[in-house]
Amino acid sequence: MTFALTISPSDLLLLLPEILLTLWLCLILIIDFSFPRLRNEQLAFFSIAGLAATLGCLAWFDIADITGSLFGNMFVLDGMALFFKMFIVGSTILVVLSSIDFIHRFKFFRGEFYFLVVMSALGMMFMASANDLLSVFVALEFSTLGLYVLVSYLREDMASNEAGVKFFILGIFAAALLAYGISLVYGETGKLVFSDMTSAQATPGLAIGFLLIFAALGFKIGAVPFHSWIPDTYHGSPTPVTAFLSIAPKGAAFAILLRMFFVSLATFKPVWILLLVATSILSMTYGNIVAIAQKNMKRLLAYSGIAQIGNVLIGLATGTKMGSDAMLFYLLTYLFANLGAFAVVIAVSEAIGSDEINDYSGLGRRSPFLAFSMLIFLLSLAGVPPLAGFIGKLYIFVAAVKEGLYLLITVGLINVVISMYYYLIVVKKMYVTEPHDRSPLKVSGSIKAVVYVCLAGTLAIGIYPQPVTDWVVSAIMMFSQLADPTASLPVPPAVVPFGG
Amino acid sequence: MEQAFFFYFAFVIAATSVLVVALRNPIYSTLALLVMFFHVAGLYVTLHAEFLAAVQIIVYAGAILVLYLFVVMLLNLKQDVRYHRQWPMAAAVGATLVIEAIILTAMKGSTTPAAATDTETAIGGAGNTEAIGDVLYTTYLFPFEVASLILLVAMIGAIVLAKKDIGEREA
Amino acid sequence: MVPLSAYVAVSAVLFIIGLLGVLIRRNFIIVLMSVEIMLNAANINLVAFSYYLESMAGQLVALFIIAIAAGEAAIGLAIIIVVFRGKISTNVDEMNLLKW
Questions:
Q1: Is the domain covering B1-110 a CATH 2.30.29.170 domain?
Q2: 0.90 exceeded by the pTM?
Q3: Which end of chain A is more exposed for a tag (fewer CB within 10 A), N or C?
């Protein structure tokens, strides 16, 4: 039997960012191993250089319109995949930068920390491009395996151990649900690629299969019936890992959800809209109400994260192009506000060794810079104009109004008010309560850089959102051209040469 | 004949999986799981997935289960283990292997029924392993490459977590 | 001939037993094994569908699931060893450092 590899150099171009990052990862490992005396910062900056090169490559693809699909439509590189890849790589750069100070808490294997962070970012990039159930499963497990290790990285710390155990058990449980869901969907349709399933009949097997897959992805994004791992894992993990967990895997999982709902299940839209509306309402309400009672900053951000995911799900629940545009936009604003808030948490915990909200009292006097940044990030999370979070919420709510989802909007608006309350408790602690200790806090350069970038992002998107909205609109447009069954199937040409 | 094998495998799989979940002693659970894996491999053979049956035995029974047993014993989870009680498990494993050997030879001998030959031609004609290899390195090349990275992550992750404090790597 | 539904039934029973195991048992190692049972249920389904649909894809997915299960087992057992060094027990419900 003859056997031929079906990959041409022009196909490999589509995989260039991933290949680049894989080679860079091998370099990180080799350098870490060969030069044990190398300082952490140097390895961190080396990892950032690789990520930045990947980001540049992705940006070039985006500008030059290099898109296409590979391996019989299993790997799709469209505008949406590019958006999420840039989202993931960008957040990974910020996480690596903010972990430089934290890393002295690890006694061993400091170099491998960067390796594992970048490796799981690579897995998420694969998730953003995965267009069939097998790739989804493989890429999802790939990114999660690295995260299991990262969560329990503080080996001597009981809280980190426990976080690792809980995250691991729920993670593999979700993986088993996903595997079984995939087996049922495969049995009912005989297909694995999302765009081949469009003509599927509504059978009980298919419904259970997709529900199981949705549950598995729900674990990933931490929407409410599947959120139980979030608070403990966020609390116990090393803080940079918490920051990473809170943003990058969610983006990647949303890419898969978008492809699944909008392509494979386009014909069952009335059904899954109900499912998403319910999940969204539960997530927002539960997250915000439980967040009020929190005493620990990481836990507060965990519950607020559950609520924010509920907001993102509103966009998905509209089931329209505008809704998905708004989702991407919202995720981007969430990236800056959330990573910024976690950077401040890292800085404070480095300086005073605590994450308790009570220890934030008087932060306004001890470090005006940190307190002001935290204020901006929390207000953006709450959705106060003129910050990015406001535009994001506005965009999502407008998309929902157009679809007439008034119940969802009402619940959403009530939740905005609730969230305002607990964010302002923190603000009050920082500015009004007297500090126990007035000594000023020292903030390192790398954390400052992260905070500045996030501040710039939050303010710039809030004041002048036009370029970003254009970007998300075009990202989703290219996605629907490539993957929408009605548009241009069978498979478009493998590579659209730039300019052509 | 085929039905008899199916019912035997199905029954043992169900029974042993209940045992895995129900037994109090982790070592017994692990051994019950081992029996289950062998019988699942037998089920694959009745479905003409011989390659997968071999992989099931090599990877699950040979690698994963040994790892489990190793950890259970290393951590010494239960002190009250009495070793002489484990012979029924060993007998079950042995019996399964014998039955699988029989079924493999029986299927070779009695030039499979019509439905099965159809499937074999559809699937690749030249045998299960070759058919899988042919698809694996062409259509499914992408997940295959990603799977190689997964094993790298698993390897490094396990070392990072479990290795004792190595010499001194002051950074 | 054994009908397809018989295989699906075995797989469903196995999946449910595994699911119950994850939910009922509190020993970390047994929970891990229950997840392996669930993955095996998925594999039986996939191989059976692959045979009856006359497509190779199901067997390939099962192969990848086995590979990933191996990786998960390695990481999971490493986590157990770390936890055991920290002298917490391997019982999941005895962990309550992180109360909310």
A1: no
A2: no
A3: C
